[in-house]
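Example 3.2
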Amino acid sequence: MNNFEELCKLASDENWCWDLVCTTCGHMHFRYAFVELASGKSPRDTNWFIHGRNTRYSETLGGIPRSYSDEQKAKVNEICCSVNLSLLKTKCSFPDWLGYLGLVLEHMYSDTDSYRKVSESWSAQLAELIPKDTSLYRLLSEKANGKGVLNIEDLEACEGVLNHASTTGFSGGF
């Protein structure tokens, strides 16, 4: 698993908050974890200290990150470009894994090739999960081919379709 996949597995196991508008913790575990990922650290490292039980990161890492540098965004996007969504789907809770993707889309957004590559990769993989006769499938396919970028609303639409599909037996391409 790559570092973001490892992060998602840890977050799912520890039930981290991924609510974009959380006023309690502000999804702080992810905010600090993105800084750590950008610096080359991995949840597999023995010195990885971002865990659900720990909330005292400011003593070591400073105040909660509210934004990220272009370099940090590029590094996280580079990691996320190779994420295998079928792996996240099997290793992480639903719909949490979609929420983790949403945090990347929100925090790592930039008008750069690295962000567009993440969008195209994830759009293509999400399209494989969606029934081919739907407008969402067509939209994701277009974004996979560089016509627009993936956004939070697209993930919400995927959640709705995937939730419905789980009750009807559709399993997508995975």
